[in-house]
């Protein structure tokens, strides 16, 4: 096949690179590099082709959509259950600042930490949830679904740790299973890495990093394990001692985002004959004040059953702890609970007694929560409930994914990866030098796809190309997931959510693989280059 030096302008090189039915690659690697001395130039020649693709795919993802990991038919669902925090109630950034500042003061006043810590304020843009913290080394990191640390996302304090130091410290990037929490996210024997899964954990992550940073900058010798325990204790006290609850109740408008659509969601379900229940770890007075603000004074009329201070996830596994009734003034009553009634408030209890008293069948129940482990894991694995995860970060990340900037970078990265995969069979020195340049460019593109979401840690859903450890658990424990309950307003209650058929690595993509990276050199190419 003869090609002039201008043919690539008339017919984009993409036609040769990506067409799936081509039996062999029509251009030699040195010739490609002659025409396009950098990956930028090569992929740049495809910009017209790329823009055509973007015109069809740009903004196709709806931030308010519901996404399915497992098939769920809403016609089968008769009962809807909800967590409270970050499910029915959403909080402003002021709440995280409150947790951070209160815990910081407790460190200073109760644990005699340096007063210089007051110079640190909460930074909402530092951490993301789903990160792991090495308790013994004081290292914060992002780990993928295969237990590999993503280099470039490791921090000691507020400073990044070099790849070389991490490779020496962990003897590579793999983290053995015994050093991590178990499948349910609970502590296992000998584990040294703690994963932070819920949104409330972000102030704790940030405070840990700030204290680490202060000690290192002031050359203060410290034991990372003690630091972790102290910070974990004061964060827990902010919740357990009622400091957070009292502050929010005093200034509801400051801390809770008014959710007028929440009432519409609940009303829609009731009007379609669905039963509703609430199971939360928060105390009644806190929930009552919040729900009155969000839904209205008659919010309890919407729910068939309300359970507070449930102590999840123990609630889902314990078989002995009984339910107790709570009156309007939050006083515990002593009479035995033999049935769960509408309009009453119940505390503690356990799921086995809950199912016995209600007679509800797990497959008819859909429960929503924001904590992958505490809210959803046991329900889906042990009890057969359908589960929905509330992931507020979805809206932010999808809006970024819908930008042309991100789409161009991603298409460029996929195209370049496909080229590298096809062309790596060329063993001559000139070709290998070209491949080195392209690999360098690929590393730069991967870094761009990380920093566009968060400069330190990137997306909560992906490392450079693999799903994160967080994503792996999300896909296992949540049948469906969405940014907020408001997404239910976009769907009829007979709607069926179908997961996309994602090809396994040995399966071929049909029709849409022009920009995939699943190409491997054809046998003819391998034979030619042996």
UniProtKB/TrEMBL annotation:
Mg(2+) binds at residues 83, 370. Signal peptide: none annotated. Pfam families: 5_nucleotid (PF05761). InterPro entries: HAD-like_sf, HAD-SF_hydro_IG_5-nucl, HAD_sf, Pur_nucleotidase. GMP binds at residue 85. Gene3D superfamilies: HAD superfamily/HAD-like (3.40.50.1000). GO terms for molecular function: 5'-nucleotidase activity; metal ion binding. The keyword Oxidoreductase does not apply. Keywords: Hydrolase, Magnesium, Metal-binding. Binds 1 Mg(2+) ion per subunit. The active site is at residues 83, 85. The keyword GTP-binding does not apply. Its cofactor is Mg(2+). CDD domains: HAD_cN-II. PANTHER family: 5'-NUCLEOTIDASE DOMAIN-CONTAINING, 5'-NUCLEOTIDASE DOMAIN-CONTAINING PROTEIN 3. Belongs to the 5'(3')-deoxyribonucleotidase family. This is 5'-nucleotidase domain containing 3. It comes from Callorhinchus milii. The gene is nt5dc3.
């Amino acid at each position: 096949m003869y090609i002039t030096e201008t043919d690539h302008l008339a017919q984009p090189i993409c036609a040769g690179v990506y067409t799936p039915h081509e039996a062999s690659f029509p251009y030699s690697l040195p010739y490609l590099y002659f025409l396009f001395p950098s990956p930028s130039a090569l992929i740049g020649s495809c910009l017209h082709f790329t823009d055509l693709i973007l015109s069809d795919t740009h903004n196709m993802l709806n931030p308010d959509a519901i996404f399915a990991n497992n098939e769920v038919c809403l016609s089968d669902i008769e009962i809807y259950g909800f967590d409270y925090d970050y499910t029915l109630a959403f909080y402003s950034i002021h709440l995280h600042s409150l947790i951070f500042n209160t815990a910081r003061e407790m460190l200073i006043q109760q644990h005699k930490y340096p007063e210089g810590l007051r110079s640190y304020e909460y930074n909402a843009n530092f951490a993301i949830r789903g990160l792991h913290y090495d308790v013994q080394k004081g290292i914060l990191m992002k780990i993928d679904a295969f237990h590999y640390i993503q280099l470039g996302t490791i921090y000691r304090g507020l400073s990044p740790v070099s790849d070389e130091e991490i490779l020496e410290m962990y003897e590579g990037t793999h983290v053995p299973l015994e050093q991590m929490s178990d499948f349910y996210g609970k502590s296992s024997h000998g584990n040294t890495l703690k994963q932070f899964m819920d949104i409330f954990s972000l102030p704790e992550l940030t405070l840990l990093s700030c204290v680490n940073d202060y000690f290192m900058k002031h050359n203060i010798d410290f034991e990372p394990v003690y630091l972790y325990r102290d910070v974990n204790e004061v964060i827990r006290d902010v919740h357990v001692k009622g400091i957070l609850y009292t502050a929010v109740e005093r200034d509801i408008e400051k801390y809770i985002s008014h959710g007028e659509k929440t009432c519409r969601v609940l009303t829609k379900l009731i009007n379609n004959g669905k039963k509703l229940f609430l199971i939360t770890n928060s105390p009644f007075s806190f929930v009552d004040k919040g729900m009155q603000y969000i839904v209205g004074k008659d919010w309890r009329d919407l729910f068939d059953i309300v359970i507070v201070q449930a102590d999840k996830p123990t609630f889902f596994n314990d078989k002995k702890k009984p339910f107790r009734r709570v009156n309007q003034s939050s006083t515990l009553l002593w009479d035995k609970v033999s049935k769960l009634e509408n309009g009453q408030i119940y505390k503690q209890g356990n799921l086995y007694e809950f199912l016995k008293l209600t007679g509800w069948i797990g497959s008819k129940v859909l429960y929503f929560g924001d904590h992958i482990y505490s809210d959803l894991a046991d329900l889906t694995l042990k009890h057969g409930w359908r589960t929905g995860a509330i992931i507020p970060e979805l809206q932010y990340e999808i809006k970024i994914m819908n930008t042309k900037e991100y789409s161009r970078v991603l298409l460029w990265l996929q195209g370049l990866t496909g080229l590298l995969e096809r062309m790596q069979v060329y063993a001559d020195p000139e070709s290998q030098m070209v491949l080195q340049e392209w690999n360098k460019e690929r590393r730069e593109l991967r870094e761009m796809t990380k920093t566009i979401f968060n400069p330190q840690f990137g997306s909560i859903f992906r490392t450079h190309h693999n799903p994160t450890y967080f994503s792996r658990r999300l896909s296992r424990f949540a049948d469906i997931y969405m940014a907020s309950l408001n997404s239910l307003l976009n769907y009829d209650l007979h709607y069926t959510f179908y997961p996309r058929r994602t090809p396994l690595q040995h399966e071929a993509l049909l029709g849409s693989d022009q920009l995939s990276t699943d190409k491997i050199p054809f046998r003819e190419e391998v034979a030619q280059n042996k």
